[in-house]
Write a structure and sequence with these properties.
The protein is α+β, with helices and mostly antiparallel strands. It has one domain. About 20% of the residues lie in helices and about 25% in strands. The chain is built from seven helices and 15 strands.
Length: about 290
């Protein structure tokens, strides 16, 4: 959990030029390129009318607000409670999410670049252990594609990856002070939550690393579309948390990126998640 996961390079609007092997092995999320002087917190994701109403915008990992940068938006700001690694076996949510998003952005670059020197992305569609999952992730790299490292795997089935399902866009990380969040209108301020016997609170005297995400409107989830995303995550070497809840998906798009673990991440295990399990899962907040 001491692995570096933040890149101070600004996130380019045009995306990454390629998918280098070393970047996959040590994924780091780039910094948000928006002008932070123009950030405005415009309110909660789910409006609250009274101080005692249940807050739906926070969970075990962090708290969310709707924001704009000047006239651009809306976006979502996710502020993480933990700003340093917790004691194992707890995971470091900020690190997990940054790594997962960084790997997905690298994979998106691999799928969109036009380079005739690169071969296809070849994976085992049902990795049965960590090594197979990790190899699947590395199969997206420029180096593995040039060498066709999974091309002659006779012992396992091979699938060609040519596209990625719809993913929530992340615009990178920013820093925000806790005191800024306590200057918000009373019903917008970060509440003191107790979730799964754990106390969660933003400290006014701390600076927090937060992620800026695309705002996805509420909408119905489709089982087949979720299954397509889950199949991609599995084939790309990802693992998952104990369960991914239906409320962590909107319009069949995964909203909570802490639900997945990249192949080199803390807590990886073999995949056993299905869309049916997601849609039947209860209201645990993340």
């Amino acid at each position: 959990m001491n692995q570096e996961f933040l890149d101070h390079e600004l996130m380019d609007e045009d995306g990454l030029p390629g998918c280098p092997l070393e970047a996959l092995k040590l994924p780091r999320l780039r910094r948000c390129a928006f002008d932070l002087r123009t950030i405005v917190i415009t309110g909660p994701i789910h409006p609250v009318q009274t101080f005692f109403q249940e807050r739906l915008d926070g969970g075990v990992d962090g708290y969310n607000w709707k924001i704009q940068f000047g006239d651009s938006g809306p976006f979502v700001l996710k502020v993480f409670w933990d700003q340093k690694p917790p004691t194992p076996p707890s995971y470091y949510a900020l690190q997990r999410e940054c790594q997962a998003v960084a790997v997905l952005q690298l994979m998106q670059a691999a799928l969109t670049q036009d380079n005739p020197s690169l071969g296809p992305i070849l994976v085992n569609p049902h990795p049965g252990n960590w090594k197979e999952g990790y190899d699947n992730m590395l199969a997206f790299s420029d180096e593995w594609r040039r060498r066709g490292l999974l091309d002659d795997c006779a012992s396992s089935p091979v699938e060609i990856i040519t596209s990625m399902p719809r993913m929530r866009k992340c615009y990178g990380w920013i820093k925000i002070k806790g005191e800024t969040l306590y200057q918000l209108p009373l019903l917008w301020r970060p509440p003191h939550l107790r979730i799964e016997r754990t106390s969660r609170q933003i400290q006014s005297d701390m600076e927090y690393t937060a992620l800026v995400y695309e705002y996805v409107e509420e909408g119905e989830n489709d089982e087949a579309a979720i299954e397509e995303s889950l199949n991609f995550f599995r084939a790309a070497g990802f693992s998952h948390t104990r369960i991914s809840l239906a409320r962590n998906w909107k319009k069949s798009v995964l909203i909570d990126m802490s639900d997945i673990i990249y192949a080199g991440g803390f807590g990886w295990k073999c995949w056993n998640l299905t869309a049916r399990k997601v849609l039947c899962a209860g209201p645990r907040r993340r």
